[in-house]
Design brief:
Blueprint (H helix, E strand, L loop, with lengths): L12 H37 L4 H19 L5 H15 L6 H19 L7 H15 L5
Helix pairs in contact: 1-2, 1-4, 2-3, 3-4, 3-5, 4-5
Amino acid sequence: MAIPKDEATGDYGSLIAQAEAAVEALRDTYRVQLAEDIAALEEVWARVEGGAPADEALAEMHSIAHNIKGQGGSFGYDLVTVIGASFCDYLRSGTRVSPEERNIVNMHIRMLKTVSDNNIAGDGGETGQRIAEKLRALTGRGEI
């Protein structure tokens, strides 16, 4: 299958550069969306900490975490997807009302915020490995 050439320049380089620029622009848009999603998680968490019914709030958090999980890897933030997947699984598997369980919910939010604030892309390298290990230890789950 032939790769089309840019008729304006007669080469592939400008098409590749345009595609890379488009992906980079989307990555920047995603980073803004990720920060907004994390702020939404923090707002819902603050309601829970303030005494709001946990069932509804945790369902809302699951929905936000599910979006985070689904989008991260598409934009080069694989660690965000790992944390989002762990968060979704954890929220889905119980009511999360004990202090220990709530600490684990809060830890997922804090880890997402840390990754976002520090723009940790890809799998996060050594930092990403430590985060994944911490989540496994906290949630009692094997591979995340």
